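Sharing a chain and its predicted structure for anyone who wants a worked example. Both blocks are below, sequence first, tokens second.
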Amino acid sequence: MLGAGLVYLVGCFGATVVFNVPMNEALAGMDLSSEATRHYWSDTYLPRWTFWNTVRTLACGLSAAMLLFGLSWAIQTQPPAS
């Protein structure tokens, strides 16, 4: 279960803070009518943001599966109640 938390922390939260938020802030600070902004959007922002969003999605799914497995294992290994 600890591993599930670490996968979530690094894969979802970490990717958001380190990659997606700075790209969002860079895009927010650009002039929307500029040709450079259009190039940044199509050539840099969209492919990178989509990649890191996919990483976040996979990390969340893996974390949920690990947590479900851990909880299932913990329940099955408990001694019977007396």
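Comments welcome. DSSP finds two helices and no strands in the chain.
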